[in-house]
Amino acid sequence: MSDPDATGNLPESYDAIVIGAGHNGLCLAAYLCRAGLSTLVVERRHEEGGGVNTEEPVRAGFRHNMHAQYMEFFDIMPMMSDFELGDLGLRAVKPDAQAGIVFPDDRPPIVLHRSELIEKTKKSIARYSKTDAQIYAELKKRADAMESVIAAGIYNPPSPELVEGQGSVLEAVFGDLGISANFMLKSPRVVIDELFESPELRTLLYRISVEWGAPVDESGLGAMFLSFVMWTIGNWKLCLGGTHSLAKAMTQACYRQGVDLLENALVERILVDGKRAVGVGLRGGREIRARQVVASNADLKQTLLEMVGPENLSERWVRRAKAYRYGPSHVLGTFAFCLREPPDYLAAQIDEDINKCFYTVVGFEGPDDMLRYIRDAYSGRLPKPAAGTWINTLWDQSQAPKGEHSAGGWYFFPPSSSLSNQEWAEIRLSFNDSFLTEWHKVAPNMTNDNVIAKRLYTPDQMEHKNLMREGDFSNGEFSLDQLGANRPFPEASNYRTEIDGLYLCGPSAAPGGGVHSACGYNAFKAIAQDLGLESPIVGSRGY
Amino acid sequence: MRDAYDAVIIGAGHNGLTLGAYLARSGLEVVVLERRHEEGGGLATEELTLPGFLHNVHANYHTFVDMAPPVKDLEVRTHGVTYIRPEVQMASVFDDETALVVYNDLDKTCESISRFSAEDADTFRRLYLEAHGYVDLLLGTLMYQPPMSVKELTKALASFGIEDRSEFLGVKLRRETINWFLDKHFTNPKVKAHLAFHAAICGYVNDLPGLAIGFPLLIGKIDNWHLCVGGSHRLAHGLWRDLARHGGVMISDAEVSSIAIDSGRAVGVTLSDGTQISARKLVASTVDVEQTFLEMLGETDIDADLRGKVKNDIRHQKWSLFSVHLALAELPAYKAASFEPDVDRAWVVNLGYGSPEELNVDFEAIRRGRLPGLAKPNAAVNSLYDPTDAPPGKYTGLLRQFAPYSLNGRGPAAWDEIGRWYASQCIQAWSNFAPNINEKSILDWVPYSPADIPSKIRNMVDGDWMMGEVSLDNMLDRRPLPELGQYRTPIKGLYLAGSTQHPHGFITFAPAYNALQVIAEDLNLDKWWNVI
Amino acid sequence: MPDIYTDEWYEAVKDAINESAGKLADLPEGSFIVAIEISADGLSPYVDTLTGLRRFVVKIERGTCSWYKEVFSKDEEYDMAPGGVNYRFIGPARAFDEIAGGLLDPVDAALKGVIRVRGDMRFLMRHAENVKVLLEAYTRLVQTNWPLGKPPYLDKTPNEVANA
User: Fold this and answer.
1) Which domains does chain A possess?
2) Comparing C-alpha atoms, which of A279, A285, A290, A248 is closest to residue A265?
3) Would the CB atoms of B165 and C111 count as touching at under 8 Å?
4) Would you tell me which of B197, B261, B531, C7 could form a disulfide with B350, CB atoms 3.0–4.6 Å apart?
């Protein structure tokens, strides 16, 4: 009988083994192989891409992005040009209307457009406040101008100096708007409240801030809101065919280089000899040796506490790894609706752009309501039915049968372990219906008749599918002590570990979750330095 | 993607990828364009129920992997693809709680058959051995070569005096049904039922005249069913990797809307988003004939006569498959295990067809658009042999029931209403034979109806997973039409290389491999793969 | 009467084929090279059980045999047929001996898988009548001498055959 773990025909050893075929793992593998190392990627699932994942989970022909949806890093991602991902089939569009919110009464919607259309954005915000419109435009302009700084921050290993210098940068860029260095001590909510007077705009910005990595109540993340979060609004792209197209293009780049990809294989152990990582042990018993590098794209606890094992680590590293926290800052439930027609919002009578908006927030009355919702989720309680929604078929009909539509959205949910399996099962059965009732209030055509089928994908399932612990999209709480040079903890923040030859290349490392592949790219820089490989930095790009 | 390639291949099913990989290895710049977000076509493996449960949505049984030349030529097994040939291949459980089992070992299979009829066991042994003798010849003649006509074949068989040399082969088989063959050679209805059931799973219905001719070959590989470890999709990845490794590109979400023709020659394609791609040497379509000729080509690109034939004469299977995908906490424990313990280890189990007549009645109903009287699905549990397709200690199950695409004259939409109900009927049928399959052991299940088939894989018109009827009129060089039976089309540089062509659907690699021979001749390529 | 598998025997086979070629209707165009691989089976004394394999290469041109040669390695086969061979017949020595001795029908042997045939089978099928004539020439028209004993070998053990 053949070898049931599907490894029978692969070599016994490689120069480098990468654990996990998420975008970071694929990115690292492509660079390693290009640098001349024979490279194997071992993936637990049957598909590459990790969270860069598109499926037909409800009905044949209706595609849904189960995790990653908004692609804001495409223009700065090194792999894009280094491996000509465009030639390998990656295509994306940037919708004009990027983010919007509707309210369950006759208040007008707010629609934020991409930067080139700032006048439209201003007009939309000005329905509530001319001052806010002006301030938003000014902030956006400055955040956009920071792109090269942001890119350099993402695609370089984190340095404590960078954080220290942040205050003065902030003051230099935003000083004339009354923003001083001390803003970096504030939480995003405080910054938003101080800058904007319109409750409606604040409601939308709270949600965006959390969704894009700056939890609203986290003191010290105000600067991140002003720079990074503001920069992302307007840079969101839609991956044609579904987010998984990115994984496909990256995989194809790996294949071209000669990377071996072993799917459906769970790494149970990282083999350690003395203080050096020398390979991996798979479920089923097979061992594959790594001559130079083992890099893990799996999360921190799995990597250190399960694969390496406490017996191979110092007491301090064990304690650090145990103390690493998942959620609640970015735990989401993803819903998938198959629709006969897209939602037609009442608010479109005031501003028709809301009907063709990339990210539409539905179900909130105002800022307090939004904060209660976020705090409920953070405290382990099921929040009210409200969501950030998208209809990708408005730009890409391929994602549903002709004339029909795929709708997706994210609910903020409590971490997986806050509720029992039974409770999650009940939520899967009922929560979408409750949300549909809210959706119907703002878009009358969102009735049961319009919904061909629907499904909800909950944090406990994400944990099983992708080993995203607690259903945490970012694979580790976004708080100051777990960001930048503190991610996952200071001693491990340069992608190296205390085991020689073992590197971290996943979102437990800086800069964290998000489809930027920077964890993989930066890990490669560290490996290249250690092994004397050529640096991947391209002059014109500078990183 | 680039704006010009040597070869543009439409469809990244196993045939499209296979052809692409050969051409890439031949030095051509190749792009394979796929409408879906995933490559593989019928090689789809998805988590339809719960995370970690891998369900083969279409192709589950790979019976040609050790026979098809591409598996060696494209070094498929070096691309992370592994196959298992389960020890207990297939079984039938009957209403009287007996069971017949086919092993990957002839002696054991004959022993099981002999519990029903010693005479049939002997006959089966002779048939199996005879078929094994000429399996290479038949594969070389009938599968991995562009097709001959039935007339040529008949003449050759007569010249070589096959009638006198073989107990089972004969020129007259081309007019007979599988039922006729079974009645002529076998006696026990249960043995016949199992053999007829096996043929039906292979797409060969037992009551269609002419299909007896393929029956000995089916028996020759009755115990050659292979399971692709980690799901059938692994094979798609392997083929894709070979393509990419040799400089070719597969592009998903690239729906071809038209084929560009210049002076009677295919020169490129246009995607539905307007992107134009030139083809310097060839365009090959692996999708259904209707799409290729009626949608991708303009009205004036081919003559009206051929267009009319494509519109009216393409024949599709008149039956489809209704599936239920299950996530299980327990392996089925069959009542019949007290008669035959190995039934609990059978990869695929026929649940209840006890005679060919019962199949006849059901196929007759299905052809009239009705559901069979009682659900008699077959049950496959891949996890028995591939524990990687489910979380540890859990199992992935698949029920398949022969069923019509269009239901009671109400079209495929009727499946929306009855899909879940009918799935529960199928589950009940399983439970009747294996009582531990119940609410407690079933963690989740989803139906996948005939109507879902073309929604996912457009080529499988009307739920026809063979991409064209398996019948004598639609075989060999007459498939899909006499004018299109040799992989070439009236348009220069446009080839057909999908399962619409000889031999048929299934994971055979043969349409692509055969089209390759024709393309190699036309382009004067070195046939590096043709090592004799 | 030439001994089996000697130069004289190959000549005789060649002549027999060429004589029969006259009977062929619609001779196929072009030329074909056929490789024959006869493997030791412990029964036939004509293939050394140590070296294990005898290889022959035959060229047929418009139905007539241009040459018929024994080669001693794959390389030598390649020298004879640099473009590759068109057909390859593979089987145990006993089967080939019995065919040459007119005891085993070659079509039966192929049908039963005793001798495996590789190459374009359609061509063989389309020219079934011609193939039959050529096979007939091989099996019936050459008078063969069997210096190490004659097939069938079934009544002998492999050792007896080897010692004969």
Assistant:
1) 13-53+243-323+477-531 (3.50.50.60)
2) A285
3) yes
4) B197
